Structure formats: structure tokens, C-alpha cells
Automatic annotation (TrEMBL):
This is Zinc-dependent peptidase. GO terms for cellular component: cytosol. Pfam families: Peptidase_M90 (PF06167). One of its GO terms (molecular function) is metallopeptidase activity. The lineage of its organism: Bacteria, Pseudomonadati, Pseudomonadota, Gammaproteobacteria, Chromatiales. InterPro entries: MetalloPept_cat_dom_sf, MtfA_fam, MtfA_N. SUPFAM superfamilies: Metalloproteases ('zincins'), catalytic domain.
Amino acid sequence: MGALSQWWRARRIERVSRMFSTRDWESAWEALPLLAGFDPETAERLETLALEFLRTKRIECVQGVALTATERLRIALQAALPVLELGLDWYRGWYAVIVYPEEFVPEREVMGDDGVVWIEQEAKSGESWEQGPVILSWADVAAGGRGEGYNVVIHELAHKLDMRAGAPNGCPPLHPGMSSADWQRDLAAAYADLCTRVEADEETAIDPYASESPAEFFAVTSEYFFEWPELLIETYPAVYAQLRAFYRQHPLARLAADA
């Protein structure tokens, strides 16, 4: 990026930053225990990335949602977290976050393997479209970020990262030095274990929704990686190690240092 481009980018970010007060930032951080333990320099980088996210992605509220400045920051900070060490370019190619008040029902035609077409009417807390927006339920956004393993923002943004390699399949583009074979082996083994336990109607440490597909397994374990890393590393240590290499972060150490 040239000096002039950097200058214009900084100007645009500064313009966005004027929308938020110091108290807005404080309230957003206080509402998100999963962000504990960052040193001041890294926290500032995360805030800058969140502002850049807000500059490049429109947050569109529908069905009567009216987000406060703090609530917009809560979305942006959580969206910035997965790409803190990757860069916002990983979110290129889409431009909007649509926020519903609660779970929404996207009605669309779905064709089964047998060629039969039906209208899908399943209530969702979030959704990511290839080449399209991220859609969120504010009620579910508000329920996340507390270190309890549930985070619809991270879940849907993990799908977006997965889509960088095409249709979501649980394997985003890996960095140089990461082994695709090792990734597939470690995540497939954990996914198979979870599916076996779910089919046996066992109680599982990880949300059983992760057994829906490899793509959902990646998105759900990404939630745990940032929200409840202790549980993920106890349950599937090899998955934690792979996600640590991919996200280039170590939430377990960061949160433990803050405890």
C-alpha cells in the first residue's frame, strides 16, 4: 500500500472513530469477557481493525432493530478478533452485516439429492452467504462474548474464512508451513468422534450442532477456541493446535494470564 493510500485509509478510519466515545469503547470491552488479557498495544490493534471493519462493512438493521454505538462496537470487535493476526483482507468480497432482532427464517428453495425441491423454513441465529452478507440475530449476538462457548459473530465469520477456499468444507486456506494433510487428519478425527457420540445420544462437551458437517465443526470449534479455549483443548487438543496455527493466536494463554 502506497503512502497516499495509507494516508487516505487513516483519514477514513479517523472519521469512523469520531462516531464513538471513550465510554462507548469501555462499555463494549466490559461486555466481552472473551477479549480479556490483551496487552495495550494489541488491544489498540484490535480496536483499529474493528473501526476498519465498520468502515468497509455496512451494518444494516431490519425489523425495528436500533443498535447503539456500543452495540455496533461489540459486533465489530468480535468480527475483528478472528482476523487480528490475519488482516481484514481475509474478509474481502462482501460488504454488509444484516442484523435482525431475533432468530430469523430465510425462506428459500432447496433441492435434495433426489431432485425434490422444497422451501426451507428453519429459524436461524446467523447465516453467511457466499459472495453476500453476514446475517445475525441481535439476541444471539448479545448472548455471546461471555466465555461460555457460544458466539454467533465468530461462528459466521469463521464460515466466511472457510469460504475463502470456495464452498465451505471446514478447511480454509492454510498458511505456508501448515500441512493440509495434518489439518484434515486432526479435524476429521475429532469430527468423527463427535458424530459418533451424538449418534449414540451421549452428552457432549462441544455443541452437538458441530456434527452437522465439517464446515459447521470448523465454525463451532472456532467459537470455543476464542470463547472457551480450556474446554476445546481438553476435548480435542489437536483441533486447538490447528486453530492456533491458523488464527495465529493463543487464547488459552491470554485468558489464563488475565485470570
